[in-house]
Structures are given as structure tokens and as C-alpha cells.
TrEMBL record:
One of its GO terms (cellular component) is plasma membrane. The chain crosses the membrane at residues 9-30, 142-161, 173-199, 229-252, 287-310, 332-353. PANTHER family: INNER MEMBRANE ABC TRANSPORTER, INNER MEMBRANE ABC TRANSPORTER PERMEASE PROTEIN YEJB. The keyword Transport applies. It comes from Roseibium limicola. It is found in: Cell inner membrane; Cell membrane. Keywords: Cell inner membrane, Cell membrane, Membrane, Transmembrane, Transmembrane helix, Transport. PROSITE patterns: ABC_TM1 (PS50928). One of its GO terms (biological process) is microcin transport. It is a multi-pass membrane protein. Belongs to the binding-protein-dependent transport system permease family. Its main location: membrane. This is Microcin C ABC transporter permease YejB.
Length: 371
């Protein structure tokens, strides 16, 4: 097992390099950029989403912006849109600040070297270390992702087992209908409905609409803090969990149905074992393998994806909102740093999933497999 883990860890290196290379290459052709954003701010204009920039992306440039004083030479020939009237030397200073004075390959290799040492630098425009910025937003995303995954699994697995045992019954039919309908409802629309009904909309005003905790959270007792925390999470979690049951429930049901029909289950029943003993001592371990396989994907998906609209609707300042704002503001230092961290976490979680296989079923031997 040690050799397998080592191989998987070593394979993460080219995988991370490939992920970063593809995204770095794409950014080279993305319209706009941090230099043009500064120029637009100096001109009193918003950054245009269609503005062209040939400088591409940067990895670790300082976020400070110098004063555009000095010569008012016309920059009509500048490669940056909106740079007319600005001193070309000032434009060169901006390029140096954001790293665009270096060739793309040199910027990319420098970025990889810094990231390998977990040196993510500072945000271009927020004047804060990126690792501190991510840590600041992490509690919101951890809360939403972790509780959503745990709640969905806690409900979906028992429900899927019950549906498998009572396959074709009235219970199985009507729960399938409810699950399909819930899956079809967009989470953000359900979030709006919850606000209208329970958060000061047209009806009741029972839940807060902003933040993860109340302003007086520090002065509360520990039991009161826990209640306040879940009070703020109730509506966002309800909106996110609504459609999360379908996949895991149906996956659990089908996995158990497949195992129940196998010969070893028939043999166990013929020996006089109770249905509960057969189900949880024999079927459960084998059937849960495929469910466990889906856990990392479910966790990563709920942790990093699909939460932007929910965070926006409920005014939760998490990683989803951070990523969106970083792309819009052309803060590529944050974009690449978060991409690297999230990709690394995803690869580590997938490795943990494989190790969980061997914990659930010791018969699985990854050591003898070719990676």
C-alpha cells in the first residue's frame, strides 16, 4: 500500500502542472486584464469584458498602483485599450508590477516554483496575502459544503436502502417522484422562495439574511453560538440540499438491488440468517463501495461549485463569491492560487477515497494494480 500511495502522490505533480498549464494558456487569450483594469480605473471607466490584452496573465505581481503622473505622451500605439494619453513609461511600470514584462513561459515557471513552496503572494487589488484571503472566506464554504454533504448522505443512504428493500412498492414509487421533482427545482429559485416565505419576504420573518453568524456572536454563550450558527445556515443549506438527495439515493438503491440479487445473498438466506443480518452484514459492505466512490466528487462539488448563487442570495462571503469576483476583477493571482489549492485538495481527497475502499473491504488490493 505504501508504494501505491507514493505512486499516486508522484502522479499528482504532472497532473497539477497540466491543470495549471491549460488554464494559464487559456488566460493568455482572455479579454481584459489587470493592467487594463488599472487603466480603466484611472480613466474613470469600468473594465470592459470585451477588452483585448496581449499581455495575458500574471502569477505573483504586487498589487500597488503608482500614480500616473509624468509625461502625457499619447499612447495611441499601445496594446492596451484605453491607454491613450498615458505615459508609455507608466504603462511599462504597470506591466512590471503585474509581471507582464517577462515572457509567458518564465512567468509560468516562476508561478509553479512559488506554488510548490506554497508561496501564493498577494492579491493584485486587495492588498492582502492570498492565503489569508482564502482562510478568511473558507469558513463559509466549509460550512456549506460539509453540512450539505453530511446531511444529504445521512438522508440518502437510509432512504436508498429502504427503497431497495421495498423495490416496486408504493413507498418506492412516491419517494422516487418526490426525489425527481426536488432534483428538477433549481437551488437558487428555491432559495428565493425560502426568503419570501421565512426571511422577511411576504410572510414570516424567522431567519436572517446575511452572514454566517450574528453581530453579537462573540458575546453569546457556546450553546447560543451553536444555535446562532445553524440559524444562519438553515435556509442556505435547505436550498443547496434540495437537489443533492437524488443522485446518492438512486445510486444507493441500485447498488443494493444489484447486490441483493447475487448468489451469496441467496446462500446466506438459505442458511437461515435474518433479513437484517443479510442486509447489513453481507450486502452493506459490498453495496457501499460505489457510494463511497462518489463521496469525494460530491464533497468537492458541494465545496467549490454551485454555491455562488446561494452565497450571493444569502450574502455569504465564501470561496464561490471570491472566485467569481477575482475573475471579474482580473485578479489572476487569486484565480491561479485558488485553482492550484482546490486542484491539490481534489487529488488528495480522491486518494483518500481509494484508501477508504480498503478500509471498507480489505479484499481490495491497490498494491497489485498498475496505476
Amino acid at each position: 500500500m505504501g508504494a501505491y500511495i507514493l505512486r499516486r502522490l508522484l502522479l499528482m505533480i504532472p497532473t497539477l502542472v497540466g491543470i495549471m498549464a491549460v488554464n494559464f494558456f487559456i488566460i493568455q487569450f482572455a479579454p481584459g486584464g489587470p493592467v487594463e483594469r488599472v487603466i480603466a480605473q484611472l480613466q474613470g471607466n469600468d473594465v470592459s469584458a470585451t477588452a483585448r490584452i496581449s499581455g495575458g496573465s500574471s502569477d505573483m505581481a504586487p498589487g500597488a498602483v503608482h500614480d500616473a503622473s509624468g509625461g502625457g505622451m499619447d499612447s495611441a500605439g499601445s496594446k492596451y485599450r484605453g491607454a491613450q494619453g498615458l505615459d508609455p513609461e507608466f504603462i511599462k511600470e504597470l506591466e512590471a508590477q503585474f509581471g507582464f514584462d517577462k515572457p509567458p513561459v518564465e512567468r509560468f515557471l516562476g508561478m509553479l516554483w512559488d506554488y510548490a513552496r506554497f508561496d501564493f503572494g498577494e492579491s493584485y487589488f486587495r492588498d492582502i496575502r492570498i492565503i489569508d484571503l482564502i482562510a478568511e472566506k473558507m469558513p463559509v464554504s466549509i460550512s456549506l459544503g460539509l453540512w450539505m454533504t453530511l446531511i444529504s448522505y445521512a438522508v440518502s443512504i437510509p432512504l436508498g436502502i429502504r427503497k431497495a428493500v421495498s423495490d416496486g412498492s408504493t413507498f418506492d414509487v412516491w419517494t422516487s417522484g418526490v426525489i425527481v421533482i426536488a432534483y428538477a427545482i433549481p437551488g437558487f429559485l428555491f432559495a428565493v422562495l425560502l426568503i419570501v416565505l421565512f426571511a422577511g419576504g411576504s410572510f414570516l420573518d424567522l431567519f436572517p439574511l446575511r452572514g454566517l453568524t450574528s453581530e453579537n456572536w462573540e458575546s453569546l454563550s457556546w450553546p447560543a453560538r451553536i444555535l446562532d450558527y445553524f440559524w444562519h445556515l438553515a435556509l442556505p443549506l435547505a436550498a443547496m440540499v434540495l437537489s443533492a438527495f437524488a443522485t446518492t439515493t438512486l445510486l444507493t438503491k441500485n447498488s443494493f438491488l444489484d447486490e441483493i440479487r447475487k448468489q451469496y445473498v441467496v446462500t446466506a438466506r438459505s442458511k437461515g440468517l435474518s433479513e437484517r443480518k443479510v442486509l447489513y452484514s453481507h450486502v452493506f459492505r459490498n453495496a457501499m463501495l460505489i457510494v463511497v466512490a462518489g463521496f469525494p466528487g460530491a464533497f468537492i462539488s458541494s465545496f467549490f461549485a454551485g454555491s455562488l448563487l446561494i452565497e450571493t442570495i444569502f450574502s455569504l462571503d465564501g470561496l464561490g463569491l471570491l472566485g467569481f469576483e477575482s475573475v471579474i476583477n482580473r485578479d489572476y493571482a487569486v484565480v491561479f492560487a485558488t485553482l492550484y489549492i482546490f486542484s491539490l485538495m481534489g487529488l488528495l481527497v480522491n486518494l483518500l477515497s481509494d484508501l477508504t475502499y480498503t478500509w471498507i473491504d480489505p479484499r481490495i488490493d491497490f498494491e497489485s494494480r498498475e496505476v
